[in-house]
Amino acid sequence: MAPLPLSPSFAARFDDAGLWSHNAVWFSRHGTLVATIKSFVNQAPRGWFADELADALHAEVQDPLHDLVRGGRLRRTEVSGRFLYTSADSRQSRDQIRTRQTASAVPLVADASALQVSPEELKASILLFYSLLDEQQRRLFAGLESIKLGHGGDSILAAFLGLDPHTVARGRQQLLDQSVTSGRTRRSGGGRKSVEKKPPTSSH
User: Fold this and answer.
1) Tens of pLDDT along 138-161?
2) CB atoms within 10 A of CB 109
């Protein structure tokens, strides 16, 4: 990543993240790579793993990250067997770690930045909702979330919801093929009880 050239012939068009690419070279509104990394980490609701940050910035980030941590300008914490980089501010760092752990514990959540509940509470809520669905709805729900997760989603959803991966795959394929039975699928024994008709009584 290079600093922004000062030549007036360049009309930089930075994206929402403050990055801009010209002739396969990436530039940052923040100037240096170190400053860009620090800004990205501080603004991330759930921090960054190094590989995520490298993909986002199109640059090698390991050495600058180590320098920032050694200088006390960022924190590094092990989460799910990997190093998570967070703000140097202790309170913000705790919030970022909590949000990251929530997202990791509950794979159905794509963005947990706005959640104010624990991973256990969120998981219990999702499983309660899931228990209220009929068989087809459960399969389609699992299939939809698998689509959102992408590669490996069938296995992740199967483990999370206690399903066979083939069931998740079937629900996913039903949605993609738009092969879904319309109308409400009633549970066995559901609905109103039938009223047995009694024979008319004879009048005397």
Assistant:
1) 999 999 999 988 878 888 888 889
2) 19
Alpha-carbon dihedral of residues 174, 175, 180, 183, nearest 10 degrees? 150
Give the helix ranges, DSSP H, for 31-164.
33-43, 50-57, 62-70, 90-105, 119-131, 135-149, 153-161
Q: Tell me: domain 19-115, CATH 1.10.3210, correct?
A: no
Residue 85 is inside which H or E element, if any?
Answer: strand 82-87
CA angle 126, 131, 136 (to 5 degrees): 105
Angle, alpha carbons 111-96-85 (nearest 5°): 110
Residues 6+ apart with CB under 8 A from 152: none
How is the chain split into domains, by residue range? 19-115, 133-178
Q: Is the separation of the CB atoms in 114 and 64 below 8 Å?
A: no
Burial class (CB in 10 A: 0-12, 13-18, 19+), 154: buried
pTM, to two decimals: 0.56
